[in-house]
Design a protein that fits this description.
Blueprint: E1 3-21, E2 24-39, E3 44-50, H1 53-56, H2 60-74, H3 82-90, H4 97-115, H5 119-122, E4 129-131, E5 134-136, H6 141-153, E6 158-162, H7 167-180, E7 185-189, H8 196-205, E8 212-214, H9 222-231, E9 236-238, H10 245-254, E10 259-263, H11 264-267, H12 270-282, E11 286-290, H13 296-308, E12 312-315, E13 323-324, E14 328-329, E15 333-335, E16 338-340, E17 350-351
Helix pairs in contact: 2-4, 3-4, 6-7, 7-8, 8-9, 10-12
Length: about 350
């Protein structure tokens, strides 16, 4: 299969609800980069780069430049030789994993289109649906409960509450949501904001109320993360500490967490995500497929991956929900908090640009 044309299109998207985390004062918009790949056979595939500068250090200019370099190189590659093609592009994207992710998605989309198979089946086909959490940013107790009730009315049964700035306040917010929605599953994501002592105090205060505590300590502090994991009564997942197979192997070898969160955008796409999941599976560590603020095209890819592996126990794929003007026309369904794949070949999406 020969690529005849590649288009790179940066797009600015606003958020319906500004969003605050332990390492972001407020997020009200994101920049993403769509990649359109056309082949001599008349097939059109799409990829997307979404990034969080606080995690990977990428800038929009860096990502656009890397995508354009990849576009030039991709014209000489057979995208169905996926491993070779992506290995070539990896040399151009060492500092921009989201750019590699964009072409990884497009090449896998082409693979699905060429075989006539939906990507989740092509990757393994373990299931066809997964329940996702929906995230509530850092805000007051009153607003946290109000937002939680809104999401509950929309059908979501798993709520991820952002924290990390005020451990005592985080405990009160989780307790308030538990009281308001006693039958909902709650997760707390500290985004690396706690010390070891604070993390353990929070975990002990919320025994029986949390499904997991995500990234309690700094992403680079594996010793601290391991200490929390060893003594926490709540399961601990590594998130920002996981940036690729090498970091996943280090976490697994040190037993620094009970599980790992995988973001396609930050690790470079499906190929890298599958490697991380394999490491987790070998170490008997569960994985969660997560996201950044990203268009539904990227959510479709994360969903395909999540549905392909029996080791993926958790879904956290809500990054598209509050984007205004997302040009993705998605093929997956969202029903009562469940993401459900269809049998549309490839990623099952088109992009209206």
């Amino acid at each position: 299969m020969q690529i005849t044309n590649v288009e790179v299109a940066p797009v600015d998207l606003s958020l319906r609800l500004p969003y605050r985390t332990a390492y972001h004062d407020e997020i009200d918009h994101v920049t993403v980069v769509f990649v359109r790949v056309e082949t001599r056979q008349g097939r059109v595939a799409w990829g997307c780069a979404a990034f969080d500068p606080a995690i990977t250090g990428e800038t929009a200019a860096d990502v656009v430049q890397a995508c354009r370099a990849c576009a030039d190189r991709a014209r000489d590659l057979n995208p169905l030789n996926t491993e070779y093609a992506l290995d070539e592009l990896a040399q151009l994207t060492e500092r921009t994993p989201s750019a590699l992710c964009a072409f990884d998605l497009a090449f896998h989309d082409l693979l699905g289109l060429a075989t006539g198979m939906p990507l989740h089946r092509l990757l393994g086909g373990y299931r066809n649906r997964i329940q996702t959490s929906v995230t509530i940013g850092i805000t007051s107790i009153k607003d946290t409960v109000s937002l939680a009730r809104d999401r509950a009315r929309q059908g979501f049964r798993i709520l991820k509450i952002k924290g990390g700035l005020d451990p005592e306040g985080d405990v009160h917010r989780v307790q308030a949501v538990t009281k308001a929605l006693p039958h909902h599953t709650l997760r707390l994501d500290a985004d690396g904001g706690y010390t070891v002592e604070q993390a353990l105090d929070v975990a002990r205060a919320l025994i029986g109320k949390l499904e997991m505590l995500e990234q309690p300590t700094s992403a680079k502090d594996l010793d601290g993360l391991r200490e929390v994991t060893r003594h926490s009564p709540v399961p601990v997942l590594a998130d920002q500490s996981v940036v690729g197979p090498a970091s996943a192997l280090e976490i697994a070898s040190q037993r620094a967490a009970d599980g790992m969160s995988i973001k396609l955008a930050t690790c470079g796409g499906l190929r890298c995500a599958r490697q991380v999941d394999t490491i987790g599976r070998a170490a008997k560590m569960t994985t969660m497929v997560s996201c950044v603020h990203e268009p539904a095209l990227l959510t479709a890819a994360g969903l395909s991956f999540a549905l392909s592996s029996p080791n993926v126990h958790y879904g956290d794929l809500d990054g598209h929900l509050d984007l205004i003007g997302d040009p993705t026309v998605s093929g997956f369904l969202l029903q009562e908090g469940w993401l459900i794949a269809t049998d549309t070949p490839g990623l099952g999406c088109v992009v209206d640009l």
